[in-house]
What we know:
Elements: H1 8-12, E1 15-17, E2 20-22, H2 35-41, E3 59-63, H3 69-77, E4 82-87, H4 90-102, E5 109-113, E6 125-130, H5 137-141, H6 163-172, E7 176-185, H7 190-196, E8 203-207, E9 210-218
Parallel strand pairs: 3-4, 3-6, 4-5, 6-7
Antiparallel strand pairs: 1-2, 7-9, 8-9
Helix pairs in contact: 2-3
Amino acid sequence: RIATRKPAAYLVNRMYMLGVPFYVDERTIVPRSFIGEILMEHFGDDSPLQLADPSRVRRVLDLCTGSGCLAVLAALAFPDATVDAVDLSADALEVARRNVAEHGLDDRIRLLRGDLFEAVGGERYDLIITNPPYVDAEGMAGLPRECLHEPSIAFDGGDDGLDIVRRILDGAKDHLTPDGGLLCEIGRGRDVLGDAYPNLPLLWLDTEDSDGEVFWIPAEAL
């Protein structure tokens, strides 16, 4: 670990999100999304989100699922929902398949390989969640040594970090129910995203460890 800076999660093949254990290895990025906390704690009577009642969430789409951690957390947070989890990487989906099985959720989580919405055809969802690649060119050039052990495809968001985010925003409206919404992590790209979409009414959400790195937007605003 000292010599190679290999992430500890890869050494022990284990990572925890909100106390929930997940298997990880070099085939997928180390789970570290802030969306997990939002899924588990920010829905309910006092939620500013349109989907305040978790029981109304019946179908969830997790784009860029990686290890499947957010898909699993979504299934735990919304017990009446089924989840479609999409990734372009066959290797990552193998890891996700193991995590889905370990949590006994094979009957509620469907793993799909494909390029974002292409994998789901004309399906619509109450909630779309995504922690897509959003690191810009400058950030890619200065990644910590630990991150160099992880799949670069999971980080690289293009010159300004928005290559994948733009595609998700542009396509989400065709895959959300009328009362649904999109929950997306963007990292440090809040200002860049605001400049690119100045008229988009994004609601920025804070978590215990983040400030304005995740946004929510209802289907009607898209």
